[in-house]
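re: ur question from yesterday

yeah so i grabbed the chain u mentioned. its 429 aa long if i counted rite. heres the sequnce exactly as i have it in my notes:
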Amino acid sequence: MVSVVTETPDLQAYRERARQWLSENLEPADPGKPPHGRGGGQETYEDFLPARALQRKIYQAGYAGIDWPAVCGGQGLTAAHAQAFAQEALHYRLPDLGHAGGTTYGPVGKTLIRHGSPEFLARHVPRMLAGDELFCQLFSEPSAGSDMAGIMTRADRDGDGWVITGSKIWTSGAHYADFGMCLARTNWDAPKHRGLTWFAVPLRGPGVSIHPIREITGGAEFCQEYLDEVRVGADEVIGEVDAGWTVAQTMLLVERGAGRDDPIHMPAVDPQTIDPFLLRLASEAGRSADPVARQAIAKIHTAEWARAQLGSRIGALMRAGGKPASGLASYWKLSEGLRAPERARLLMEIGQGMPLVWAPGDSGGDHAAREYLNSRVWSIAGGSNEMQRNAISEQILGLPREPSFDKGKPFSEVVHQARNWTQSGENSA
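ran it thru and got these structure tokens back, copy pasting raw so excuse formatting
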């Protein structure tokens, strides 16, 4: 039996007010605009200024951070209110703040709310929700990817502040973000999962150098950052000093699906509406009536709906408790790593017979080609498919953990041993 959710009068009135505000203040969405069509990662800081202005307009109207705590600048309403606004906003043009926007209102924002001090939240959250501060994650390093606890960026105390030195890589949107949520090592004598601390690092300040990385698409969404004795105040510490791995677990939990981005940046899935981009691509390829193309569209639409239901199911399991949230979140992350390549393959099938070599442009073929080239991103970024399978097997299925040589050892000793192994290998070669 299908249950019917009845909205309260309060929620119905909220939905009506949101519907009226949207119709009076936002432009209708362009049904022909494909998803993620901002320019292939070639945008500049200035390119996002119009989107920031639109975000500010939504914030000033009270529709940003709808279910974020009021004490730190959100609206303090329920997830049902956020969902109602998301549903009403489906067919309007919303601010597109790129990957940095998704990070700000997703993993970073939700992590800050849980671990930031009241003073920190009061200083940053209102500006984040207004689009004045976009955050990126300064997490991965050239020598620390899947083994994220093995980072080498260091933060040393200096008076009442900290000095940070190191390098981060594979950072989405750093070139147009304002702050980086940076993980650094503050205690080298503790085991590698301890002695870590998070900081809010201003990316436009002295000592920060940002270098975009040219990708297979020709764009440069990813960046590498060099931090050369960057000074930050003690008030920019996130969570407790030397307890950064606890904060990191929260961030990974959200990034891998145990949480939802702010609704205006991750609209609800409408089961009755097929992605307009799919219809546009089929039309441009002259295959709108082709049964093979229509079947491919149906497969994508079905997978998108199933993905939304999986997210709901995982959320319900997390709320019920009983299983580790990080392991449950890995189901979502793994599903995305498997879904994206299949969607991209089906897009190429729909567009069969038209040019699908990517070049800067606005045709369906251009965007299908770009999505195909980017289709393996989510099987690696945020933890590879293999890492998600490990988490599921160990945390949910109860299988034995993989052996670890560095468990419990001071990180300085781990680094020393690793250097000796490297030198021994080089000498034997």
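noticed a couple things. Confidence is low (pLDDT under 50) at residues 34-38, 259-267. also The beta strands are 135-138, 154-158, 161-172, 179-185, 196-202, 208-212, 222-233, 237-238.
anyway ttyl
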